[in-house]
């Protein structure tokens, strides 16, 4: 899943080397924490959060068939 998030986010940003993804796993859920360069934050979130929502939709769809746990994507500032 980390690779999928990187594949989606890196082409969107000006500083792809600053893209970081951390994973926190608990017995019933997985949280992917995405952090990018502060200048790229607007590009990842998009107007009215549309890009962030699209990223989450893709990850949730892929994770639902891959994991039996609830999956979340948090964008850290």
UniProtKB/TrEMBL annotation:
Keywords attached to this entry: Cell shape, Cell wall biogenesis/degradation, Chaperone, Cytoplasm, RNA-binding
A cellular-component GO term for this protein: cytoplasm
CDD domains, per the entry: KH-II_YlqC-like
Listed Gene3D superfamilies: 3.30.300.20
InterPro entries in the record: KH_dom-like_a/b, KH_sf_prok-type, KhpA
SUPFAM superfamilies: Prokaryotic type KH domain (KH-domain type II)
Subcellular location: Cytoplasm
Function: A probable RNA chaperone. Forms a complex with KhpB which binds to cellular RNA and controls its expression. Plays a role in peptidoglycan (PG) homeostasis and cell length regulation.
Subunit structure of this chain's protein: Forms a complex with KhpB.
Protein name: RNA-binding protein KhpA
Upper taxonomic lineage: Bacteria, Bacillati, Bacillota, Bacilli, Bacillales
Gene, per the UniProt record: khpA
């Amino acid at each position: 899943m980390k690779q999928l998030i990187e594949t989606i986010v890196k082409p969107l940003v000006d500083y792809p080397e600053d893209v970081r993804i951390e994973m926190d796993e608990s017995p019933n859920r997985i949280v992917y924490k995405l952090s990018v360069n502060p200048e790229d934050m607007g590009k990842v979130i998009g107007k009215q959060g549309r890009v962030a929502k699209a990223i989450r939709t893709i990850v949730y769809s892929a994770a639902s068939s891959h994991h039996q746990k609830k999956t979340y994507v948090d964008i850290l500032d």
